[in-house]
Write a structure and sequence with these properties.
Elements: E1 3-5, H1 11-21, E2 27-30, E3 49-52, E4 56-62, E5 80-88, H2 91-99, E6 105-108, E7 112-114, E8 119-120, H3 136-142, E9 145-149, E10 161-162, E11 175-179, E12 183-188, E13 191-198, H4 202-208, E14 213-215
Parallel strand pairs: 1-13, 2-3, 2-6, 6-9, 7-10, 9-11, 13-14
Antiparallel strand pairs: 3-4, 4-5, 7-8, 11-12, 12-13
């Protein structure tokens, strides 16, 4: 059943939703940008272990104030904390974890997602832009589940959920869930289901998004 709330989600509320949906005991990678905020809303009872591709397991929330250690950062160069039992390892070992299917969930940002779950999140093809795919391809394909956090529309009002990608591909058929400020989507069986809407109606989404939508 598709649920509705009258207000758009803030970035913190999006992060809270993602954090609440992560299974207990999961090993999780949070990508650069909005996904980083998810770490601030995980609870100790969940027992989630955060992985960062620059070589750490057991990452805690973002560091602030006196907790900032310039040598302790995530892949986005943001200062983070470490939880009891945290471990550090070589970059190559970190990528082996990503590529070997050892992560239960990765949460990434995106420029576009197709109705088939294809992901574009590293380059818009704009002239002069610096390509920086990093470990996104390894995460998107290697994790057991790939979720995305993003704004649903561009500044020009165009939907980032599209029939086919027009930007360079990161991974094919890898995205299973999308969290945005106005809706949460689930992608399965080559269909796009709307789990919840926020500040917009299901009918408004249907009018603005160029893919077939179904109620969850």
């Amino acid at each position: 059943m598709t649920t509705y709330t009258p207000e758009k989600l803030t970035r913190d509320e999006m992060a809270q939703q993602v954090a609440a949906d992560i299974p207990a005991g999961a090993f999780v990678n949070l990508g650069i940008g909005q996904p980083t905020n998810v770490s601030n809303f995980l609870t100790a009872d969940q027992g989630v272990t955060l992985h960062t591709e620059n070589g750490m397991l057991g990452m805690g929330p973002v560091a602030t104030g006196d907790d900032i250690d310039p040598d302790l950062i995530n892949a986005g160069k943001i200062p983070v904390t470490e939880l009891p039992g945290a471990s550090f390892f070589h970059h190559a070992d970190s990528f082996a974890m990503m590529r070997g299917g050892h992560l239960d969930v990765c949460v990434l940002g995106a420029f576009q997602i197709s109705e088939e779950g294809d992901l574009a999140n590293w380059h818009t093809g704009a002239e002069g832009a610096i390509p920086a795919v990093g470990g996104a391809m390894d995460l998107a394909i290697g994790a057991k589940q790939t979720w995305v956090m993003m704004s649903l529309f561009t500044k020009a009002g165009e939907s980032k959920l599209v029939k086919e990608l027009s930007y360079p591909v990161t991974g094919l058929g890898c995205v299973s869930r999308i969290y945005t400020e106005v809706a949460v989507f689930e992608l399965r069986d080559s269909k796009v289901f709307v789990r919840s809407t926020h500040g917009v109606s299901f009918e408004e989404l249907v009018a603005r998004i160029p893919v077939a939508l179904e109620r969850a």
